[in-house]
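Q: Convert this sequence to structure tokens.
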Amino acid sequence: MKYYLIAGEASGDLHASNLMRSLKKRDKEADFRFFGGDLMREQGGVLVKHYREMAFMGLIPVVMNLKTILKNMDLCKRDIAQYKPDAVILTDYPGFNLKIAQYVKTRLKLPVFYYISPKVWAWKEYRVKSFKKYVDEMLCILPFEVDFFKKHRYEVHYVGNPTVDAIADRPHRNETFNDFVLENHLPDKPIIALLAGSRQREISQNLPAMLEAVEGFPDYQPVIAGAPGIDPDFYGSFVENKGVRVVFNQTYRILAQSSAAMVTSGTATLETALLNVPQVVCYKTAFPKLSYWGFKHLLHTPYISLVNLICGKEVVKELFAKLFSSGAIRNELQSLLSNKPYRDNMLQNYRVMQDMLGMPGASDHAAEIVVGKLTTRTI
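A:
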């Protein structure tokens, strides 16, 4: 069968490429055409447009590049119509993908699958109406999304979480602490991991306070997980004369050997929990009081970290906006490292969360649904 896939950013490229690999296991004649990236290209098929030419984030970049965005959308529509796929598979990237879904369903009458739902439970809940009209099957990766969509009378599938797969398949998963510190020329001291974000602005906002907080723990060594794509020299101004190491391309290895972690919000909080590392979530914002007010009154979610969202309660402390300070981070680290009942309770909640997420195999489960629906013509 012929599949047209659309991913508009790096994470979408990763997840869509894994889905393509799983589709090939179940459909030996699978043929792909896609908007995506290098990882998808490695799975075969034709890359029509690279996500680097599409990834405009934020209001001002979108407005400034509106002509390019509309041009890309027209190209995508024409290309799908010419390719005549058996199905269109969308991955996150809602601003673009929902417009494509509408076109594909109303004009081309083709089956539409959505792998990895946009976070409409946090904001833009009105988009659920578009999903119900234009998306035949929603394949979700967060268990609470099933109940969220059920409130809107929209039946969706929970297929598992790709981060569970990534953690299960990670290299070096059996290495010892000694193996890790020896290979990276680190002291033989317990580690506190610092995950300060993936973009320069995030790192600039969060890392100074993290470094200040960790100064109160001389028996531990802080290790910064260097973000992919960030020049090592960028970290220099933050760690100069502090005796702090930055280690690149080894985030899972760092976490697996850490006693505790300071983590900005995002998938990293989930990765940290899956590796059973007690953590404090910390995220600095501009206009902290206003940001906190906006979170409490404008967003439709009680938490910013995936761990707490999945568990439906506060498992890890969230120090963001007006709650963010080096002192507050230091106090929470003290509890994580010295208060055994507090630490054990967090680890127990991690185990509950892991049971909720289920076993590895998200892309396999998603592919099974896609192929099954198409071959039995139940879509």
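The two ends are 15 Å apart (CA to CA).
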